[in-house]
Amino acid sequence: MRQIRFRDPDGDVRYGELIDDGTIRADPIRTGRVTDAVETFEMESIEVLPPCDPSKIVCVGRNYADHAEEMGNEIPDRPLLFLKSPNAVASHGSTVELLTGIETLDHEAELGVVIAERCRHVSADDADGVIAGYTCVNDISNRDDQRRETNWVRGKSFDDSAPIGPVIAAPENVPDDASVRCRVNGELRQDGSRDQFIFSVPELIEEITAYMTLEAGDVISTGTPEGVGPLADGDTVEIEVEGVGTLENQVRIP
User: Fold this and answer.
1) Across the beta sheet with 229-230, what order do the strands follow?
2) What is the C-alpha to C-alpha distance for residues 222 and 134, in angstroms, rounded to an integer?
3) CA–CA gap between residue 127 and residue 195 (Å, rounded)
4) Residue 209: pLDDT above 60?
């Protein structure tokens, strides 16, 4: 199942399932419209929204050895964590308006883990029980300021710097070696897979919840493979995760 959150033609926020033929079957219970009739929508008739409403995105740095190498960094001995705040979230299909006057704004294709319930102190063995599913994330990075600061607020948490979506895929739909790719204007820039992680999803959940409470709808962005590169005004960026689908955005840099 691939769960989608959307605004219908009447302007109401709805939930549903994205079917293989590209149509959406609305969920009558979550939208409060319990009816015997099955409502379906064409993608062209709706506005895709972020698939969840996170209170925070917990991001993982250097979780691929090849990416650490390309950035000239050592492989960490524990997960390197930083946060993106809700203002960073952008939806599939939207135009992301990025910072002006910045020399390097990079794309980073990542697998996102969506949390199902409020949780703290979750062991790696129990981690599967708090996962709602997986999504695509583009951890857009402002390298100019990231290099100058240690907390990465300017470098990572600016507006529209975390497109997510288009759906939340059930865990069983996303293989252990799921591919994680980025294309810019149709050119393949990144091509990695989940089985290249230094720290697995259960290990990340155990580490993060040892320090902070995760809320339902929070997202863990699990790190990016090698091949990160700059974005320019007018670019079309596609983040593809096997089993989830493709997150697509247009870039605007004023």
Assistant:
1) 141-142, 105-107, 229-230
2) 11
3) 17
4) yes
